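Just curious: can you write a single protein's sequence together with how it folds?
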Amino acid sequence: MALIGEEEGRIGDVLVRQFHENGQVRLKFRIHTSGEASLTCRITVTDPDGKTFVCGEGQREILIEEPKLWWPRGFGRQDLYQVKVELLSGCKVVDVWEKRIGLRTMKMRIRKDEWGESFAHEVNGTAIFAMGADYVPEDSLLSRRSRERTKRLLEQCARANYNTIRVWGGAFYPDDWFYELCDEYGFLVWQDFMFACATYRLTEEFEDNISHEIEENVRRIRHHACLALWCGNNEMEGMIYDGYGETPLLRGDYTRMYSYVIPKIVKREDPDAFYWPSSPSSGGDFDNPHDETRGDAHYWQVWHGYQPFTDYRRHNFRYASEFGFESLPAMKTIESFTEEHDRTVFSYVMEKHQRSENGYAKMMVYLAQYLPYPRDLAYLVYASQIMQGQAIRYGVEHWRRHRGQCMGAIVWQLNDCWPVASWSSIDYFGRWKALHYFEKRFFAPVMLSCCEEGLLSQNPNPNARFYDVEKSIRLHVANETTEEQKVLLRWSLRDSSSGVIGEEKTAEVTVPPLDGLWLGKEEFPDADYLEHHVFYECLQNGVVISEGSVLFSMPKFYNYRDPKLTVHREGEELVVHAEAYAAFVELQNENEDLILSDNYFDMEAGEKRIRILEGSAETITVRSVYDL
């Protein structure tokens, strides 16, 4: 709340519209003022280099020649222009309106194609594969918010190669600094209006209330370069379509709110913005909002539906705007809300710090499918985070391998508003879970991934009727950059001691910009799925930029050898040594707040160097899945 004093007049509202043509940008200003009729406006625009453009007397347009465009992270610079509107009484300035804007075109590319209808962010004419997560409030007590805290969180998003953040509709409209920082970092912002997972009666009073709320927030946020789209709500169209709380009255009120009231306000207050009625949706009005060939999708059969991780490969959504898998937070975070006798997932305190219905039961079901049973809660934390990272990896890598058909992978969720077991990749205290390191790898601009066939993708039941297990791989390089990428690929079949079986293979390939490249399928009929695995890596200029490994069985069946892991520090690096193949190697300090260039990685026998980015590295522990 604020008290605003007015003497001779004030600026009530400014709308800046951009018109891009012939390599120039024409800015048009719609200015609402109050006060005396003799008041005039002076408009000044300052470019990133300090050059100024000033409107002439009585004009409301400025032409920017040779504009410096704003681009999403990874696609170019995030240049911003300072706009100042001064209200003048003669030579006296009586009010000032100032904002930073980015010069860019921002659309959704929605076109008929061979898979149905595309749904992709298009910035300055370039289609972007959206990579990021869903943002929730950073604290349950909103007074604890600060620019510094938000900046810290968004820095971690940049480190994990995000280019998009979705503001979820079940929370609140973030502070101005959130959007200012997203402008600076280059994140596209999918902005939900604050309606979620419910039904609403559209009374006259409610319509008046929400109309003012929406108008004020659209006016506040609309000038930010990061704003990619406005979305009517979270999951309400799909819920009503599926029969939740549906009555003819509620269905009608829903249509009036999201197909008339809200888009009408958006059209008036932000006429160049894209409006999407709901998430997920195929375009609104209950036209099969779960259609996988159109619009965006929320997919929860992996986790809530107990489907295996490989189930993601059965779905080629046009844009996956929400999907997730739970894990426990760090042990130090658990210790912040428990006493020693509470530290079991079956305790009352632990159940009260669980965000998913039957969440620990789901976790145990997936654990039984995938990993050996952990020895204690600390190892369950580790196991749960490994499963979370692996689950989401299966989805994102699959969708990036099908760029063009799918153009977005937004993970539920980025952060927590309290210390809790949840779907986040960063916990309440800012500690990275394994998932955030996985995101750094599978959101990398150039990424090598492997689509393997084995027990997990066929029939993981060891007591099933005998069948010939297909053991094969297909490597794929994804290139989310605007330049072609020349890379060297290396891969080999290995045993659990890291011995190469047969010969290491290599391929030099050139991947077109904003595209991907498949290698041919390679089968390993004689491989022992309990003893053998495939290790693969992608190098550029002699440096490994992407790597990983795949099994033909689940990790719980694989016969890991003791890698005898050791770690020591050399300057600002940690040097990890293994004597055998080690999967999901975790490096951690005593406070569990270490941030590294990589973590929870696979490595073969030998040495791996990891840079220390943040945190004390005086005492480091190391473990792998072998220790489970």
Observations:
- The mean pLDDT is 96.
- The radius of gyration is 26 Å.
- Residues 44 and 54 are 5 Å apart (CA to CA).
- The longest helix spans residues 377-400.
